[in-house]
């Protein structure tokens, strides 16, 4: 699969292309170009360090949305075994944007709830671009209750721009479906782990995101609103999306400081789309480790910790202004 560079990655891809051309020319014509190769390799390392070591919030959003980034089904194939997809909310329909079911994580049978996007137009139409309808959240809750009944932990893999805002979705009460999930997940008597693997957009993400441990991949983001929508509201112009992304504090690094998430899962240099197996190994290891940890707590203590975790969100202290008061 040929990688598709983002705008800020183009200098890196140009150097990689130049390096490959030098190596090909050396092999084809039996010419010693080692010195030139070393120069380009050194410049490539420095360029990668400068670009990937100083990513802006907007650049991380772009990486999180990369069409070649691994999606939920890619992680299911690599992190879990014995996957069995279950369908339907038993009320209206099956939501293809939220494939969910049962799987083994190590030696533990789990309920796995996911968002799934598509890589081309046909897949995106089938998956509704990863934007779930009410029946998706009701299906998720049905399976979570099934997990509670049989003592199976719940694993959520979050990757959505947000819940679908269309007329049909509103007619079937999308806000009510998400609200019920928030309430029910808070009291679900099994361990819950949520992992933001790409986009974590608004209530669509939070609808399966109430968990004992919230993980996030290094270049994923989690936000109450998309940078473009925030820009359109505050500046009345979507061109300020980069400024909005910085102000929203939506990156994994910001969220860890704010204690919205509990752990950052590392990605390969340049993003998860550069090495599926590596990032899946990191995610699988983090899921197993965190599941083992929270499973050691008695369920009543776990529920109390879950409650306290979400009650702490949004608490802040206002500092006193040092500026002199303006005279009236």
Would you mind describing this structure in some detail?
With 328 residues, this protein is α/β, with parallel strands linked by helices. The protein has two domains: 8-54; 61-311, Alpha-Beta Complex (2-enoyl-CoA Hydratase, Chain A, domain 1). It is built from 14 helices and eight strands. It has helices spanning 10-29, 34-52, 57-64, 72-79, 121-127, 134-149, 167-171, 174-186, 202-206, 227-234, 241-248, 252-257, 276-294, 299-311, and strands at residues 81-86, 100-105, 108-114, 154-160, 192-201, 213-217, 221-223, 263-265. Strands 1, 2, 3, 4, 5, 6, 7 and 8 form an eight-stranded mixed sheet that branches. A hairpin with a 2-residue loop joins β2 (100-105) and β3 (108-114). The N and C termini lie far apart (66 Å).
The shape, in one word, is globular
Supply the number of helical segments. 14
How far from one another are the termini?
Answer: 66 Å
Main sheet attributes: strand count, strand direction, barrel closure: 8 strands, mixed
Keywords:
8-stranded mixed sheet, 2 domains, 2-enoyl-CoA Hydratase, Chain A, domain 1, 328 residues, disordered C terminus
